[in-house]
Amino acid sequence: MTVEYECIIGNGKDYRGAVMKTRSSRTCQEWSSQEPHHHSYLTPETHPRSGLDKNYCRNPDGDINGPWCYTTDPQKIWEYCETPKCAPFQQECGKPKRKPKQCQRIVGGCTSVPHSWTWEVSLMTSTNMHLCGDTLIDPQWILIAAQCLERSSTPSSYRVFLGLHMAKAVEPSVQIREVKGIFQGPYGADIALLKLSSPAMIVDQVIPVCLPEENLVVGSGTECFATGWGEIKASVF
């Protein structure tokens, strides 16, 4: 199933709607075309994850002002588009659309039902190497163990992948965000916050977890779950 984003949130980098006119009503040029304007960088080949289909308005370079396109007017290279904005975040936290599978062990656990832990995200390096499983607590904020950031304290060293089930991150539901800021917890506490470059699009595969109330005490015998990416079978040598 392909997740379609018919409206924009943040800078509209995930917009996949069918608007093909600019704000001044110019028709957009197809992204795969080099006429009337030549552009060798922003093409379906150079940006395969950016949805550069036909001549639809897109934001492959993350322009802060939103989706745009090259135009078919020889006198105007490109223009911004008038694309609809998404309604504010409405999805109730902590309630995925698919019922999670209950396993009995952490070591040697079981494969989860795809997209049943919708707040589980993958922190990766800028070269897409998985580092840690972390938690979406708000469309633009990730809760993370501070030890996951030992490689670097520079936000540009990391990327966050949301809406994925397999660590390879090839599913159409995957959303990718750059890290805008890193906020470390108190000294000695293994906790930190990441601010994403733009809010995540809240869909069935991406829903934040619910945060506990202040001073909540988890009672003895409370059933808990641990999720993440790892081996569920022992390696054989």
Automatic annotation (TrEMBL):
Residues 6-86 form the Kringle domain. It comes from the Eukaryota. Residues 106-237 form the Peptidase S1 domain. The keyword Protein transport does not apply. InterPro entries: Kringle, Kringle-like, Kringle_CS, Kringle_sf, Peptidase_S1_PA, Peptidase_S1_PA_chymotrypsin, Peptidase_S1A, Serine_protease_kringle. Gene3D superfamilies: Plasminogen Kringle 4, Trypsin-like serine proteases. Keywords: Disulfide bond, Kringle, Repeat. The keyword Repeat applies. It holds the Pfam family Trypsin. This is Plasminogen-like. It comes from Apteryx mantelli (North Island brown kiwi).
